[in-house]
User: What shape does this take?
Amino acid sequence: MTTPRPTPGLMPRRDPARPTASASDRQLLAPATIPGGRSLRSLWEETVLASNMPTNARFVGIALATHADAGGQIAQQPRLLGLQHETGLHAKQIAVALTVLRDRRFIRQTRPTDRYETADFYLTVPKAVMARHLRRSALTERPTTDA
Assistant: This one.
């Protein structure tokens, strides 16, 4: 006899009294300040590609970034349908990828209540991610000295 598969009704409920993020957590998730001489878009692309996000999230993120200017603003929003045509992914896969990017604070919606079909996005990089990326790039860009 096999064990029955769990259904969504059998899954534990999320705790509505879940503790909120502390002030230090909110500060780490806040958008980072971009170092002088660098564009937000280029740093954003580097951090997204170096992240451990699922492949589809990185793919959709880079597709979204192609529409952004150097400051991370997206004047011509591709919307869900545009991203579907550009990536070849199913709309639900793109929605999941956008949720991953939004939950990890790599994109923000101008109006958080909008559905993905009509939402306007802009690129952001959380402070903690930016700090980690800058430390890594500083380590790899150190000049070698031959003595």
